[in-house]
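Researcher: Here's the sequence for the chain we discussed earlier.
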Amino acid sequence: MRITTLKDITAVAGAFERAGINIELSHRKGIFTHPGRYVTALTSVIIWFMALIAYTIKNFNDVDKLLTPLILDMQFLLTIFKSLVFLARRKKCLRLNEALERLAWRGNQSEREVWNHQNRRLHPITRAYDISCQLNIGYTALLPLLKLLYYYIWYNEVVLTLPMPGTFPYDISVPFFYILSSFSSALVGFYCWNSATAVDGLFGWFLYNISAHLQIMRLKLEHLLQLQADGPQFQVDFAAFITYHKQIISLTLELDAVYAPIIFFEAISSGIPICVLAYQLTYLSDPSSILFICTLIAAFIVQLMIYCTGGEKIQSECEELCKNIYLLVPWYNIPPKHCRLYLMPLMRSQRVLALRGYFFTANHSLLVWTFRAAGSFTAMLAALKDKQK
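Model: Thanks. This is the structure I predict for it:
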């Protein structure tokens, strides 16, 4: 039975292909499969990033106008940061993936089935995330066209707007510059869509891989319990069990080291945008912006949930393994000299395999803390606005 590999996760592999990034450790192709495509999209993101900053400086005294460009700048900065961190640590990520897949290939048929079952569950999740990113970007790109049609049909006016507020060194009312800016905004959406799907989807792939290996360990433990403790096969399989556990712990720590900057930046950059966007919903004058703000809120929440629920999944699997080692092993029937052998995996499994972003631990507590902080700041901003009236 073949195992499911990263190339079989079409949403993630397709995102890397569209972005022009090579996910094979091949020196012939290098880092990029289409370097021009990646550089062009990244350049568009940087141009819009600077345009949003210029718009913020121009409207610095108008708090209501500068909130949206600030949030968009944070989203662009987060996306660029994720992509650049992956490129800087690309070889580590791909070697980690190879190590996880190599362990799965060594398993028997039942163990490979556990691996495939876990990774098959990832297919609809990554596909749904990919579609949600497409819908967010698609709505943002179509919003100016919808406004143009609305004003032309109902008011017989031609109103040219861009998907995002920005200040450029040229007049966007000129058709050439308007088309140029619209095209660059489409490239921005293309970059954000593929970068988010690729980097976040790859993180989900690693999580489900490690979860599958922890479940395979429980199968190995059940197999050990069926052997005679005094038999030679028990000693061989038990040594392999301890080695396997050590490798999983090492690979989990490697994943934590690779994604720690991304988890840290995700944690510190998600609360404020959610707070500000929720606050903006309370005083909107343009109803057409409601869906745009809601999609932005959903994007920040989903990205944060990917890392928090993923970290929680690893912790729960580790705790389940620890319970199985302690509860399923018949200590009372095992000779003391063999009983002591189980102390090593039991002590190792009690060590929490947490994914940390330096100062933050990715779990449900971080998610709840972010929502509480965002709610508190939203209430504070609303109170300050009411006080100014």
